[in-house]
Every structure is written in C-alpha cells, then in structure tokens.
Amino acid sequence: MEHSGHGMTMDLPPFTLGRGLQWSTDPFFLVACLLGLALYGWGVVRLRRRGDAWSVGRTVSFVVGVLTVALMMCTKLNDYGMVMFSVHMVQHMVVSMLSPILILLGGPVTLALRALPVAARGHKGLRELLLALLHSRYMRIVTHPAFTIPLFIASLYALYFTPLFDFLMGSKTGHAVMMVHFLAVGVVFFWPIIGVDPGPHRPGYLMRMLELFAGMPFHAFFGIALMMASSPMIGTFSHPPASLGIDALSDQTAAGGIAWAFSEIPSVLVLIALLFQWHGSEQRQARRKDRAADRDGDKELAAYNAYLASLHARKG
C-alpha cells in the first residue's frame, strides 16, 4: 500500500479513463444529487398537473448539470483526484464552472417559486421564505460583482497557494467540503450573469458580459503559473503513489494545461446563453410594443408624425 501524501492510503493502478469512470460512491454527493433531481422532478410534475408549461430545455440542462457533479464525485475520478493533480483539476473545473452554468440554466429557483404552494394569509411557508431570502440584504451582498468576482479569483489563488489546500486534502471530508465550496462559488458567480432565476442584481446584457470576462482570465493565468513552474507547487501532489507511475511535475503541468484550456469553455457557454436571452428579450419587447400599438392605435407613432409635421410647418 502506497502512502498518498494526504493522510490516506491508496494503491491505485495507473490512470485510464475507463478506470476513472468506474463507480465509486461518495455518499454525501450521491444523496445530494439524487435529492436535487427528485425535488426538481417534483416541481416539473406539479406544474404539468396544474396545466402549466415548463421548458424541456431547462429540465435537460438541470439534469445534465447535476449528473456532471455526480460524474466527478461518485466515480473513481474522485479517488484519483485525491492523488493526481491533473484529475483533481478536471474535478475542480467541471464542478466550479460547468456544473453551475448548466444547473442555473435549468432555472431551479424559478421552478421552486412556481411549484411551491402559497401560504395562507398571515403565515409563512417555504415559498415566502425563499422570496424573503432572494430579497434579503445578505443576497444583495453575495451576488454583487464586487463580492462575486474577488471570491471567484480568491478561490483559486488563496486556496491552492496556501497551507489550507493541503489541510483540506488531508481527508475525504475536507476534499468534499472543498468541492462544495467550488460549486457554491460557481453558482454565486454565474447566477447574476446568466440571469434565468430572479435575484437582487440584474444588470444589462453588456454588463453581464463584462462581469464574465472580468473573472475568466485569472483561471488562465493560474493555469499558466502551474505549467511554467520548475518544481511541484502543491504539497499534496508532490509525491504521488508509485503505483500510478507518474511524475509529479509532469502531472502538475497537465493540471495547469487543463485549468488554462477549461477557462474558455464557460465563457463560450455563457456567451451563447446571453446572446439567446438578449435576442429573446428584444423579441418580447417588440411584441409588447406591437400589442400596445394595436390597443391605442399607435399613438406613439402618430405623436412622432405630428412632431415632424410641426417642424416642417415651422421651417415653411
């Protein structure tokens, strides 16, 4: 049995994708993923029974988002991620940048607000508590760009380049806590940008794009720093088990390459989502104007024509 350097003993064979994708249950993440899927499914069924529509695309996005978390945390990728920096980096990137985007595009908060029953007058139910949380001062702070962007960046540099990372990697519990943190930071960062669910901050589409690009380059810089290092930078991964047959520095270089390359994926995904939302918003606005014009006989256009006529008369 080889000592992995993180307080646990593991004798894993050399990594292959087939071995990495084998089932290896993490009870916490398995229960959390199943619960998330069950609650979302309950919400969709409740709406359908009531005769209300719910987008299939949103459902698919949420399910795939949850399944990406399960793929990272309930397979042997999680075991290899404890001893291989490159595999750990795949976990980190997916859980912090891909899973949150897919989950948020599923609109779980919107679904909950529509599916949960309204409490009786003078009482507070789950729906009312959720609304109170959404409008709370706490939520205004944690979803503000002045908070989310520094948090997104600090999650990389303050964690990996301090003793905190080695401490958390000393146990499976610490590792799970770290992954929950990555997921939460990703949700908080992308929530105001994607804007499917209601929230305290809803900037314009241009500002959302600026927020997105303010955080992404730091992931690329982090990856480059790992790739350019001439010696292992993280204690946990500096002495990989001999059974893996890998070199710590080469594995670190691979981890850096993954961090650098992966930073482009969420940018493209979110940009596509924003462009679709922007287009949809313009279409809705145009339809609203058309309906208003039908109702009032297009008073706005008539007023503008009268204004042009008055200018012409003045010149004449």
Unreliable segments of 5+ consecutive residues: 1-9
The geometry reads as globular
* Percent in helix: over 70%
Number of helices: 15
- Secondary-structure-based class equals mainly alpha
Q: Assess the beta-strand content as a share of residues.
A: under 5%
Number of strands: 0
What is the mean predicted local confidence, pLDDT?
A: 85
**Biggest sheet record:** none
Radius of gyration using CA atoms only: 25 Å
Order of helices and strands: HHHHHHHHHHHHHHH
Distance between the first and last residues' Cα: 98 Å
What's this, in brief?
This protein is mainly α and 316 residues long. The protein is built from 15 helices and no strands.
Describe this structure in words.
There is one protein chain. The chain has 316 residues and is mostly helical. The longest helix is centred in the C-terminal third of the chain and has 33 residues. It has 15 helices and no strands. The protein is 72% helix and 0% strand. Helix 2 packs across helix 6, helix 11 packs antiparallel against helix 12 and helix 12 runs antiparallel to helix 13. It is globular, with a radius of gyration of 25 Å.
Task: Describe this protein with a few key phrases.
72% helix, globular, single chain, 316 residues, mainly alpha
What's the layout of helices and strands?
Elements: H1 17-20, H2 27-50, H3 56-73, H4 76-80, H5 85-105, H6 108-115, H7 126-134, H8 137-142, H9 145-160, H10 163-168, H11 172-194, H12 205-228, H13 248-262, H14 264-296, H15 299-315
Helix pairs in contact: 2-3, 2-6, 3-5, 5-11, 5-13, 5-14, 9-11, 9-12, 11-12, 12-13, 12-14
